[in-house]
Amino acid sequence: MQWSTSSRSCRTSQQQSLQDLQARLEGELANETQKYNEGLRDSLMHFLDKYNKDKKYDLILTKQGDNILYAAKRFDITNDVINGLNKGYKSTLKAEAKKDEKK
Length: 103
What we know:
Helix content: over 70%
Strand content: 5-15%
Largest sheet: 2 strands, antiparallel
Structural class: mainly alpha
Radius of gyration: 28 Å
Strand order of the largest sheet: 1-2
Number of strands: 2
Distance between the termini: 78 Å
Number of helices: 2
Shape: flat
């Protein structure tokens, strides 16, 4: 009976070791995949910058993934969106402050 308990303990230890190894290898694979994808994206963006100096495209699209590979700066509305959201937020704060004053 002791032998089977020892055998089970050994099997459990081996299973844990295999699970640990699998987790470590999956993590390493994920890291390597991320590095590869970042390098590929950097290479693609570098190429598109050079390629588009002559072509002068406003947008370069892809069929899958992010969809937009390149967009002219004039299409970047980030600051307009941020300013609009901030303006709306400030208006909401002012309205709430006025409600609190009335109470």
